[in-house]
Fold:
Amino acid sequence: MDPTEDKRFLQTILSSIADGVFTVDPRMRITSFNRAAERITGVSARRAVGQLCSDIFHADLCERSCALRHTLETGQEQIDLPAKILTRPGHAIPISLSTTVLRDSDGAFLGAVETFRDLSAIEQLRREISNQYTFEDIVGRSKAFRKVFAILPDVAESDATVLIEGPSGSGKELLARAVHNLSTRRKGPYGVVNCGTLPSELFESELFGYKEGAFTDAKRDKPGRLARADGGTIFFDEVSDLPSPTQVKLLRILQEREYEPLGAVGTVRANVRIVAATNRKLIDLVSEGKFRDDLYFRLAVVRLTLPSLKERRVDIPFLVEHFVRRFAAKRGKSITGVTPAVIDALMRYEFPGNVRELENLIEYGFVLCHERLIDLVHLPEEFQAGCPKPPQPVPASAGSRLRWAEADAIRTALGRGRGHVERTARDLGISRVTLWRKMRRYSISPDEYRAPQSSSRRY
Amino acid sequence: MKVAIPRFGQRVAPCFEYTATIAIFTIRNARIVGQTDVALESPAPLDRFRLLRDQSVNVLICGGLQEQFEKLLEASKLRVISWVRGGVDEVLDLYLQHKLVPGSGRRRGAAGGGSPGRPRRPRR
Structure:
């Protein structure tokens, strides 16, 4: 085999493998970059070659223990090191990497080669199992969400009791977990009490635990949920469902920070942070006499309000992208997104089930879709039936269809760009002036795609 | 005004979340009048956020940055210019001349620099 053929043969092999492979010269500049490396990092070989590898990978290892540098300096191989790289626009991808020295056929030193494997799917499964969600999982760019983001660091740091209000499926538990995972208690346990499913007779024994002999079947000591969440956070979901007698017991914990396990002779200090959530306006229940006002004020030291999805439609494209990435990793499918028609339909849908319903729709699409993009046909019939039809039908002639598709692309991009003209123009690869001209031609107003005014309460 | 640049040696650190040192420049009348280096010990994003807040930083110029963390910083009224690469001095100089292209660290108008629009003037 002559050298040219040899090189081509090698390139074919490198292009066909699923692992990312790239080489660097002794000055850490990238000299080659295979197709899988392009796919995982989202950077083309043309852009990557010639750059410092740290400027392409943005890895956690770059500063503290760069594997390539170690290999270049010592000649030693590095095998299966865990690392994280950042890809645009800021997604962390877990990888495992190996490095080795690169020499030519005469043994002359050329640089080093690194191979790396995308572990997103495994990481996703691990996160689902361990529920290790952080604010990275809260997707939202709407004004209402920006407000929550702005106070989240202070809320997490404060150790104050938090009340989260919002409709079902709006992400209350995710926010509660984020508050815990961002707080100083993050290394402690996180417990969940679903107030709607816990019978009031069992509330005390479940929450406070009991001592051996406290009642007939108490064969040995059982720590309650408060004890199990010691040093961490306890989340009371659907707190508005607590019956009145139980509300008093919860109030006592909040007031005294102490409780007495059943059959115990002394009190136990409750070293937990309390986060509660409800899908109802708790203050309304207080005024109706269905919820104790003293408990309400103890719970609502900090109040966070999550809007419904239809109040923050601008977040839909970002949520779709988030769920597609998540399910692609979880199910091992190479689906990369949804068609503009799906985005258009989602933007018009009412979403009575909020974000959870959107998540379910995308998951449904992942079951039926065997292509790169989820289309309307891959979504449930009920969704298609419940979705208002677009105002303009697709025209029959080819020229009109082209114009319709162009207008559709502009609407979709405006949705992604929250009505920001400059950003949308960049997204579409056209100038701002051209975009304005086309919007005028198709009677599209960017105002329709701007973030709605928040309807959330003041915190 | 204070401008923070996470650095790795003399270059902008590849990733803010994992950097160990952050250079904080005090700017007055488009001139550097002070500089301190702060060690970032905790990898927790919130600790990094608090450090920037405690140091009264107005602008963060950095390399890679997680999207959600960027949103968190921006929600707190901190201006973020992310995905910048190059030497710290060179990048700061470009910023002071309003020539820093977000996402590259290149000079506005340079070949291949893209057209990201008019730069915002730094807050005074």
